[in-house]
Write a structure and sequence with these properties.
Two copies of one chain form a homodimer.
Chain A (H helix, E strand, L loop, with lengths): L1 E7 L3 H19 L4 E4 L4 H7 L5 H9 L2 E6 L14 H11 L4 E7 L12 H4 L3 E7 L3 E11 L4 E9 H16 L4 E6 L5 H14 L6 E6 H10 L6 E4 L1 H12 L9 E5 L5 E5 L16 H13 L4 H16 L2 E2 L9 E2 L2 H12 L1
The complex binds 3-isopropylmalic acid (2 copies).
Keywords (chains A, B): Amino-acid biosynthesis, Branched-chain amino acid biosynthesis, Cytoplasm, Leucine biosynthesis, Magnesium, Manganese, Metal-binding, NAD, Oxidoreductase
GO cellular component, one term (chains A, B): cytosol
EC number (chains A, B): 1.1.1.85
């Protein structure tokens, strides 16, 4: 299996190192061969190649079985013109690999729930999966430009039927493998694209009789995520709504530093990255929480390599290390023990071996 | 002063009755003359006139000094084609009166904060004003249509410079009258319209030297509203982001039934409505909480009639009735006393007299 590593910027490099160690341990214990190849993306690529997404990076990713991404961005590049911003690399690689399905599982860890901004009785039991369309909608629609000598501006939210169908199918399938409940989020009382989205969900329903479907308007969904997060199983929505709602959902359980994500294309190649950012303030200090990156590697084993047992071992390892009270500086566990990136990684590797 | 009442659907009728009683008391005590005229909108208008926004309603609103709206919508009209849906009436009246500035103040009531989904230490001290652009963006941009024989679909997010400038000015002015902090929310790393939005905020900054400005991406804003709501003063954003974020913010303090809103045009005519919906399940039972509607009437006195003292009296009345432990069925106050719509209204009126 060929794995491309894109550490990116800030703590991306450190946490990528951790993920590689964990995957090496898995390879050795379970007799797999993983080859690793590192490439640049984001700010690091701008500095080295003058572009956030060099051709060599795209080519390598296209030939890989899976891609792990650390994080991109940092104050150094914040004032660059938009084609020279780190996040352009991220948008570019999503589009280049046609990574249309972004999956974000969000589940609280019992001994971290106390750090949730929500009351324990509200957040406990939350276990949801947000399925976000990632390569269409207003992120990529044209025209997206100034007009009338800069007196006006337009962006375009565009979808093809096929783009909506494939993400909706993905979400139904995910719901089948979970608790069988699908919440489709749209703004069908205003947007034509949402009306079409809702129609397609209704059409597809018959193919998945064991899944129950509800439609929720995006504004109502933004409320319900807070008032009753445990009521959701799988949530499917278009790109921009997914961006907002998945970030909203990511803070509910109080452990943003623990959340992985997977972005998949139709051939099963995926890009796996933590939900958190590049955290430039703590970069290079050995303090970063590597768990989200390590759990992203577990998702890679599950979704791209179909190594469910190995994925599970990593997840169990994380749980057991947390249960033993170990945590990085971004978290607190009552009577726990604070450790750095390296020690946290070692504890997880030790469990695997 | 000519006030048009649009009770609309569901509990809209009941709570409008309460607002009218309160305004009548104010008129009598403070020697004002308010004339009231009632018209239909939403589902009620569909039933009676075959359209959610009859011409007579638009004409009456155009001649009014202010408009009070109850709520629109209900299951009866949920499956109507889109031009015959109650919310079309709402979108239509906003556009017809050019109500570009939607103001949503969100402030917790001390003895209701316990009902917040957030921990008390997170939510306490929250006092924010969301300023949402209400007549532009993707809500009204064209084209908004199916294409390629229904194989694709587009919506258009369009703004003119002038539309952005006027809402940004409004928000700066609001911040001047509050704690002097403005958070502008956009998605400038993806949308051209957001880049223009951010430029305009930067240009305007010099005119309001006493206001401090920060730019936050919409996904980050959705997180920060939950993790640190008390850090916001005035939030300004475009129509769709404002729809999502203002609903998200409305559940933070645990008392959605208390939140008013104001939608203003350039000549100061405004439409005032509660944030909550038409609550068809409890309509006609005398259980509805009239406070959001009554506080909306207070905003009308403040913003359209410049009757600050009278607005304040209504707000004080609500606070004192709550302090005395009275609440409607949607709320709970420890050791409080549950009352219906009518008694709640009477308590508020009694305080005013
Ligand atoms: C960096 C940005 C362009 C990106 C997005 O909006 O998709 C990020 O917020 C994300 O969710 O991965
Ligand atoms: C009913 C709907 C069209 C409306 C909107 O999205 O503007 C509502 O959600 C609101 O916020 O007032």
């Amino acid at each position: 299996k060929r794995i491309v590593l894109l550490p990116g910027d800030g703590i991306g490099k450190e946490v990528m190192h951790s993920a590689k160690e964990v995957l090496t341990a898995i390879a050795e214990e379970y007799n797999h061969t993983f080859s690793f190849e590192t490439h640049e993306i984001g700010g690091a690529a701008i500095d080295q190649y003058g572009t956030p997404l060099p051709e060599t990076t795209v080519d390598a990713c296209k030939q890989a079985d899976a891609v792990l991404l650390g994080a991109v961005g940092g104050p150094k590049w914040d004032n660059n013109p938009s084609h020279l911003r780190p996040e352009r690399g991220l948008l570019g690689i999503r589009k280049a690999l046609d990574l249309y399905a972004n999956l974000r599982p969000i589940k609280g860890f019992k001994n971290l729930l106390h750090a949730s901004p929500l009351k324990e009785e509200i957040v406990s039991g939350s276990d949801l999966l947000i399925v976000r369309e990632l390569t269409g909608g207003i992120y990529f629609g044209t025209p997206s430009e100034r007009r009338d000598n800069g007196e006006s501006v337009v962006d375009t939210l565009a979808y093809t039927r096929r783009e909506i169908e494939r993400i909706v199918d993905k979400a139904f399938q995910a719901a089948q493998g979970r608790r069988g409940k699908l919440t489709s989020v749209d703004k069908a009382n205003v947007l034509e694209s949402s009306k079409m989205w809702r129609e397609i969900v209704e059409e597809k329903k018959a193919q998945y009789p064991e899944v129950s479907v509800e439609h929720v308007l995006v504004d109502a969904a933004a409320m319900k995520l807070i008032t009753n997060p445990a009521s959701f199983d799988v949530v499917v929505t278009e790109n921009m709504f997914g961006d907002i709602l998945s970030d909203e959902a990511s803070v509910l359980t109080g452990s943003l530093g623990m959340l992985p994500s997977a972005s998949l294309n139709e051939s099963g190649v995926g890009l796996y990255e933590p939900v958190h950012g590049s955290a430039p303030d703590i970069a290079g200090k050995g303090l970063a929480n590597p768990v989200a990156m390590i759990l992203s590697a577990a998702l890679m084993l599950r979704y791209s390599f179909e190594l469910e047992d190995e994925a599970k071992i990593i997840e169990d390892a994380v749980q057991s290390v947390l249960d033993a009270g170990y945590h990085t500086a971004d978290l607190q566990i009552p009577n726990g023990r604070k450790v750095g990136t390296e020690e946290m990684t070692k504890l997880i590797v030790d469990y695997i071996r």
